[in-house]
Amino acid sequence: MYAEKTSAPSRKPVTVPGLRAMKAEGRKITMLTAYDASFAAHLEAADVDVALVGDSLGMVVQGRSSTLPVTVDDMVYHTIMVARGLSSTLLVADLPFMSDRDVPSALDAAARLVGQGGAAMVKIEGAGRICEVISAIVERDIPVCGHLGLTPQSVHKFGGYKVQGKQQDAADKLVADSKAVEAAGADMLVLECIPSALGARISRELSIPVIGIGAGVDCDGQVLVVYDMLGLTPGKRPKFSKDFLSGRDSIQGAIAAYVADVRSGQFPGVEHGFN
Known about the structure:
Protein name: 3-methyl-2-oxobutanoate hydroxymethyltransferase
CATH class: Alpha Beta
Function: Catalyzes the reversible reaction in which hydroxymethyl group from 5,10-methylenetetrahydrofolate is transferred onto alpha-ketoisovalerate to form ketopantoate.
Structural class: alpha/beta
Largest sheet: 8 strands, parallel, barrel
Distance between the termini: 49 Å
CATH topology: TIM Barrel
Helix content: 25-40%
Oligomer: single chain
CATH superfamily: Phosphoenolpyruvate-binding domains
Shape: globular
InterPro entries: Pantoate_hydroxy_MeTrfase, Pyrv/PenolPyrv_kinase-like_dom, Pyrv_kinase-like_dom_sf
Strand order of the largest sheet: 1-2-3-4-5-6-7-8
Order of helices and strands: HEHEHHEHEHEHHEHEEHH
Number of strands: 8
Strand content: 5-15%
Main location: cytoplasm
Radius of gyration: 17 Å
CATH architecture: Alpha-Beta Barrel
Number of helices: 11
């Protein structure tokens, strides 16, 4: 069956320095997950700034109960597919569970995601010992995006998918960890499921772009799982997400609406955040 390709508008490629410039200029950064070439083409056509090949593919594509079984091979495979659907949107790929167990393993995984997969940046969860891993990857000129707050690879330690940083000591630790990730050389940071006020504070105090998912409207940008924001994920939709396909007649229209709402500050609303 023949399907006409989605045409993408012409624009300059989004770059890592360009994302920093967007933060400095107060322009919101838009980010969505993608796991194949078709969805990637829709993100490209809607002018999404960043496409994330998340290890969330373990849950939304593979049907697993967590992200933990996802392998480096899985990530490379899906990153290759997404890269084929992009031309100007920046491509970020997750380092999956335990690929960061030591510096050599993390370097190997990052090199594969960039060299074979075509990613421009890799994303890694955590701080502490992870800062050494971040520094080692950055020293090889591979840009890194950190990920703090609710880090899904630590789901068993957290006892479930729970909001992080609600108590003052936990909030202070998240601020310190965010600054440590930045000092280690990260070029961007994702904050997941933390109080909106804390997301705003960290975004103010860091010079690198801070992308929120359930971290409030005052972050420098937003990211959602594309299946969630299209209402495709079975079960209850996360509080921090919204069904952008509802009331619209196409996936392209839904993604365009998400981009417009993030850039205008209409999304996320108060109802999508945490206290």
